[in-house]
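Task: encode each sequence below as structure tokens.

Item 1
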Amino acid sequence: MMHYMGAIFDLDGTLLNTLEDLSDSVNQVLKQYGHPVHTCEDYKLKIGRGFRNLLEVSFPAGSWDAGLIDGALAMFLRIYDEKYMDKTAPYDGILRMLGELDAKGIKLAVNSNKRTDYTNNLIKKHFPGIPFVDVIGERKGIPKKPDPYSALEIARKMKLSPHEILYAGDSGADMLTGTNAGMDTIGVLWGFRERKELIDSGATYIVSRADEIIKLF
């Protein structure tokens, strides 16, 4: 096994279960526009490519144009601002796993397609004692995952080469992000996507519990 010195984590579906707060917020927008709502299960396949995309894939096909999504996105952000701390919580074992990796001297970071302010606020609330090297969310003008730009930026801040870092996430996009950055990947099964998507996207390791990640270091 490789000797890994760093770990980069996705946020939604990997460290935090954000599903209900996101689902509730998008459904409130859909109701305002007179459209049918979706279940939490439905949203598992819609989340992960940024808020604008989330709205585009939640509105009925053919019911929207760019201008309508602009308005829906503004409404969603007002609602999510009020809701995003309501039901969101870490998955079982995550805090202990991060603490043990930190105790081993592993450098830790977060790379999310969620907007940076939400990402930072959620990390501060739920993981205040974890010394992340960097926490990166969606930024204007910077390509989103699976582009490796942010993962490689984090590697430079960690002062590690990509092959010394494990990239963990719950989606195919996360596996591709790690691979595109030259990093081995961990697909987690407690998030929003299925094992098949993780395997098809080239996951190096698949884990079903947070403590399994510790053993990879």
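Item 2
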Amino acid sequence: MPEAPQIHITAEPQTIPTNCLFRVDRTLFDGLLYVSDPEWAKEWAPLAAYLFENVEGVRGVKIQGSEVLVTMANTPEDWRVPARSSGSAIRGFLEGDVDSVKSGANEAMTGNDLLRQQAQKVIDDTLNPGLASHGGFVEIMASDGPNLYISMGGGCQGCGSAAMTMKQGVEVAIRNEVPGIEGIYDSTDHAAGTNPFM
């Protein structure tokens, strides 16, 4: 019997210290799903459920394409420790040849995760197409209940108009479409942009 192909996974710590991104050499989900409710994950997102059960301190899991973003409840002293356990858990799950996300998961989403999902749709469908004309984009880096932490990238990172874009563009668009969102916070490291401002 031929040997199963090895699963390649790379880990990338993110600018928000509670997050770590894992890139896998195969598609996990043809879409985007963020889960913070372990009970919901048991029914709809087996990969997220596996991470909640097998990696201590996981607060949220985002699955998109071939990427898994793991958010820890607390900032690790050394990210290599949860990165190793998260990577091992992802590999262990994938060796079981089970769907990472069940069909209909997005439609079954509820609560704060639904709010985040709806905000992501506003970003994908409305905000980023417009910001792309200026070489920029925004992304949700993390969420805490009904609060979002958004990062600006490309031409928006460090731009002198970034604060106005965030307040009058990003916040207004998201709040108009997703009134349940409470706080929207800019988590961008503007000093690291191509045109940093202080």
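Check on item 2: The longest helix spans residues 111-132. The helical segments are 38-44, 46-54, 80-95, 105-108, 111-132, 162-177.
End of task.
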